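Sharing a chain and its predicted structure for anyone who wants a worked example. Both blocks are below, sequence first, tokens second.
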Amino acid sequence: MKRLSTLLLSAAMVFGAVSAAQAVDIKAKGQFEFAFGWAKNIANRSYENGTNGGFQSNRAHQDFIARQRVRTQINFIASEALQGVLMFEIGDTNWGRTNANNTGGGSGGALDADGVNIETKRAYIDWIVPNTDLSIRMGIQGLALPSATGFGNPMFDADVAAITASYKFNDMFALTGFWARPFDAYADRYSDNDGRRRLDDSMDMFGLVAPITGEGWAVTPWTVMANVGNSSGYANYLFNGANLNDADVSRRYMTQENDRAFAWWMGTGFELTMFDPLTFGMDVMYGRMSDLENADGGDTIRARGWFVDARLDYKMDWATAGLFGWWSTGDDAGDQRDGHAKLGRMPVVGTDGGFNPTSFGFGGSDIRGDNAVASTTGMGTWGIGAQLANMSFIEDLSHTLRVAYYKGTNDRDLARNGFGWAASYSPDQLYLTTGDAAWEVNFDHKYQIYENLAAYLEMGYINLDLIKNHFQSDSDDAWKAQVGFKYEF
């Protein structure tokens, strides 16, 4: 009887699984992306003894690239109220390259391929609380704070493990709240001092976004608070550009015994479309962080600053003409003393999306070629630019011409003093002072070969002028000419 019951239970589970599978609608979408071309004099990040590497030839960067990336997203749709989403990524894979074990992200581009390189990009469920309009998303997801200009939010725009809850009260007002955990480097680790006390190792972020939409206008205020536990791994991101969980590497930037830090941000986006085809967008934000300590000398980092960007567009039949600009506060040399660095730039958390006003110096490229060679955040800089976007004179062929000028807002005396903490506190490639400036020109093209296949040609040039009396050498100009193909399904 016991065997029969077990058999019947197993059969019920099998048939139940089959029925459940039949009830789920599975849909897939994704991208195959390829990039080929040349780039010269990509940024060499070096701030030692008052020397800025600038844009200089670097053997670590190959002049010619052949690169690809594949993304596949699968939606498991049970109903309008419930679905699960998985997104996988292979890449970026550089042709001819791999690593010693042929494993991990980016591996498998060398002879015989066979890399173990499938990465989990996103994994979450969407569901609606029964008998309400409250929607929940939980899991590893894409999470971005508002950007009224469309250039991306420089403080946070990334994939992260989080829970978000959204409720639409009416056509005018909605509210979204979230809890995210971007860093937890020393999970389940204990103090080295007594071997028993568990480390406060995580960084937790709590945020609210409250979009208000009217007829021809929108205002989106938002606020975020973050508790940074000791040895969370957040310092690795700021000083090393990566979320590294390796204890030996992490200890170089933050010990297991640092004091807890606290950070908060607030901002608002403004959009005007009532005068269409003339549209306007603007973001204003402020953030600060206190008492983030480094490993060796016990130095304390305190950061606070403003960031503003704006964009004005006029859409015509053949193109969209636009003006744009941004401004960020910078560091003051007088604050770098007594083992305490008070930085004048707004702290950032996740810059995978980044701030993207241009397609070479910043991260606005449409292909897997080189970009963000100057900055991913725009912090410590100001800039202005003009563009003619989506120019089209032939069917399926469009062009964008863009010119931008930007300078640093960090005190030039920091270069004379050897930079110290200031330059290394950033995921950006370059640290620009008030004596440094750059001109950038983009000329980008897109040809829609088929409905799902597009070809791109991106050409960019940057003339970087570093202050002569503080840096040991001037900088070469940087340029790129790269072709890309993107198949989307």
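Comments welcome. The first helix runs from residue 2 to 23.
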